[in-house]
Hints:
Layout: H1 3-37, H2 43-65, H3 75-98, H4 100-124, H5 132-153, H6 161-188
Helix pairs in contact: 1-2, 1-6, 2-3, 3-4, 4-5, 5-6
Amino acid sequence: MTVSDTTAPTRFGEALRRLYFVRFAFALAWAVLVFATAGAAGPVLTALLVAYPLFDAAAVLWQLRSRHRDPASPRAAERVNVAVSAAVAVALGWASTVSPAAALAVWGAWAVGSGIPQLVAAVRRRRSGGQVPQILSGGISVLAGGAFLAQGLQGSGDIAGVGGYAAVGGVFFLVSALRLGALLRRKAS
């Protein structure tokens, strides 16, 4: 094993840790804005609903293009996540102009569709550390997404629940960042 073989996963781990902190901050800020605007459908809520999956796609795309990428990382699951998130941003833009229930159903379908690849990617990336929270997050995403989809199909217009979903997801990113940081410190010692 060469020096570059041992430092590349560490640099990727450090970069991934920083990304997890950014994703935590974004999710928390986004959730606060959704809670504040969820009662009033309109262009602000539409912009917020579109922004979240676009940010998710950008974050996963960054992971795919990272120079310090873990070579064992699951690219196929991440590519699926990017494609699904970009398509959902368009669908949410349209659905939010139809009704909050339509937007909730699309959000639910996305949570299921992105939760499965997240779960697969985290299971495959577990050797890099800090992935147990991401495994849990992917599983919870599938379950919560199913609930949102069912609520939307039944005509519920309570879109505020997606803010709580994002906040919980943000907490999982924070826990992953902290755990990954502890693992990296142990490796450095």
